[in-house]
Amino acid sequence: MKPSLYEQKIHTWGRVSLVLAILMFMAYPFFASLYFKVQPDYALVLQGLLAVAPVYWAVGAIEAFTFGPMLGSGGAYLGFVTGNLTAMKVPAALRAMQIAGVEPNSEKGEVISTLAIAASSIVTTLILAAGMLLINTLRPILESPVLAPAFKNVLPALFGGLAVVFLSKNWRIALTPMILMLILFLIKPSLSSAISLLIPLSAAVTMVVARILYKKKLI
Amino acid sequence: MPFSINDSILFLLAGLVILYVLGQSVFFLVKAWKRAVELGISRQTLRGTLTGSALFSVAPAIAILLGLISLSRFLGIPLPWLRLSVLGALTYELPAAASVAKILAMPMDQPVNDPAVYIAIAWVMTLGILSGILIILFFQKRMQKRLARMKEKDARWSAILMDSLFVGMIATFLGMVFADVHTGLAGFIPVFVMLFSALMMGLCGLLIKKPGFKWLENYAMPISMLSAMAFAIPLTNWIGG
After folding, report:
1. Smallest Cα–Cα separation from B28: which of A96, A67, A129, A16?
2. What is the pLDDT of residues B144-195, one digit of tens each?
3. CA–CA gap between residue B195 and residue B188 (Å, rounded)
């Protein structure tokens, strides 16, 4: 089937906006350097990058190849610029597609995913901007020990609800990766810091299980 | 020019970048909305998508704001505001800044007062996580074409494959929730919070199906998430986390 005009154009809009975004991101340290008339400590930049880039570049690559197909093109172009993918943009897009009753990897899924990510990005930007302006007022409230347990548990609170929606309708394919991940985290709790590396592993296991069940006509 | 981590020029630079990203979000929103209408998706569904996604994002955004507050002690407000509004996430930005601080044996509860160090940190945070955006830039079109071909060949398998990606991601986080159970009862707090969220989602699901509270669909996720976060407060006080 020939892609629609929107599907063709989204790549042009996406690519142009991504290139501009990368330039804008680099403009901050570049112009700060010019303004303060200070060259960055290049050795320090290199040392710092050597400490984080090998892992982050691998994680970024894995996220792109895993989340890109999930979000559709518009969602991916926008989501990767606005960030906070795993704990916000991807769940927002999945939830929206499920409620709207549209399939991912379809044009309807693509537009719903893009709308969800755009709404999520705008809200985050506005909340951060308001928070930045009111930082002195908000700091004691948000950092109060009373609220600390709530913010410490954002991810379990998020994925508990999502699990009911997605795992209940896909329980046959979900069983194996869930057991595998449970065992992995029970044996090696420190894997929490490598969550982004485990997502593609879990997704690959799920795909293999799904393929076997599909071939055996069990799903 | 005397250096300050909260210099007004830094606010201006960060603000301009954030404004650009905000503009990009609005641009994609408008384009997607127009196309959705052409595709016959009802305005009610589209409005529901926007409000539901916006509400759903409030709690995680406040958690990000907490990250901004904690990073601001070390880096001032503009740089964390920029980095957490675009591209990254606290899980990347904090270790990126910490890696430079560690090399220089700098405490992260004191503000950076050397502009060369500040700019070096800004470069590490910027360049450290560019790979995802570069791959999307160069490979998203190709990935999408392949998926479209796969769908033409076998639409059912294509749908199952997408479900597998989602399920794989959710299964990973569900496993992670159990990571601290070896520490005793306090380690089970995230598990109980997850179960409470699941229970609330189940209840919302029942209300949507049985009495036909269809309007609840868009609010079910924010309700289950926020109520589970609220539940974590007395639970932690009771168990002592």
Report:
1. A16
2. 888 888 888 888 888 888 888 888 888 998 999 999 999 999 999 999 999 9
3. 11
CB-closest option in A96, A127, A207 to B161 = A207
pTM of structure: 0.84
ipTM value for the complex: 0.84
Amino acid at B87: L
CB A119 within 8 A of CB B53: yes
Per-domain residue ranges of chain A = 170-219
With 0-12 / 13-18 / 19 or more C-beta atoms within 10 angstroms meaning exposed / middle / buried, residue B203 is middle
A contacts of B229 (beta carbons < 8 Å): 150-151, 153-154, 157
Q: Which amino acid is at A124?
A: T
pLDDT recorded at residue A187 = 94
From the list A97, A88, A113, A99, the residue with the least C-alpha distance to B204 is A99
What pLDDT band is residue B241 in, cutting at 50, 70 and 90? Answer: low
Query: Which tens digits make up the pLDDT trace of B14-47?
Result: 999 999 999 999 999 999 999 999 999 999 999 9
Residues of chain A contacting residue B165, judged by C-beta atoms under 8 Å apart: 66, 69-70, 203, 206-207
DSSP string, chain B: ----TT-HHHHHHHHHHHHHHHHHHHHHHHHHHHHHHHTT--HHHHHHHHHHHHHHHHHHHHHHHHHHHHHHHHHTTHHHHHHHHTT--HHHHHHHHHHHHHHTT--TTS----HHHHHHHHHHHHHTT-HHHHHHHHHHHHHHHHHHHHHHH-HHHHHHHHHHHHHHHHHHHHHHTTTTGGG-GGGGHHHHHHHHHHHHHHHHHHHHHSS--GGGHHHHHHHHHHHHHHHHHHHHHHHT-
The candidate with the shortest Cα–Cα distance to A94, out of A169, A196, A187, is A169
Q: Do A185 and B176 touch (CB under 8 A)?
A: yes
Boundaries of every domain in chain B: 8-129, 177-239
